[in-house]
């Protein structure tokens, strides 16, 4: 799976809003484009690092059924970084993705799964989680390990290694096609099932 939307110019069929806002929670001056055999999509991305948040907002065509793309992508490294991507799709009328999506970070309780957690910047040596564990939330059912280099929303480059929680099958997509945070150069991204535990309330 790739997060890169397929823009399909065509003189017939549905029309969708298209725009890109980097480092902002919305985008200005959208244009209307033809999207034959496609759906209208709004993609909201938020990449948070210890020093700064990088929001990205994108509207265009997405070559997927509506039911398949109304989803959320999550990656969490408690206390250090997080990645949230929300896909909203529609095809009931022209430019149905006109509405601006308001990003709201919910206070999501633990889902009773845990993963090792650590974060190391300015190095591609594996970080050591030791006995440190974090509670996963929502649809995060796998543990992720990343070693490599990321380009952030302001085009700054960081060598990173981290471990944390990610959505099921998150390693199949990784950072491919994201507009705010992307991997550059060689990197290692691995996932395995998270551990189910009893959470004391």
Automatic annotation (TrEMBL):
Source species, domain of life: Eukaryota
* The protein's name in its UniProt record: Sodefrin-like factor
Record keywords, A-Z: Secreted
| An annotated GO cellular component | extracellular region
What SUPFAM superfamilies would the database entry show? Snake toxin-like
Cell compartment(s), UniProt: Secreted
| PANTHER family, alphabetized | LY6/PLAUR DOMAIN-CONTAINING PROTEIN 8, PHOSPHOLIPASE A2 INHIBITOR AND LY6_PLAUR DOMAIN-CONTAINING PROTEIN
Keyword Transcription among UniProt keywords: no
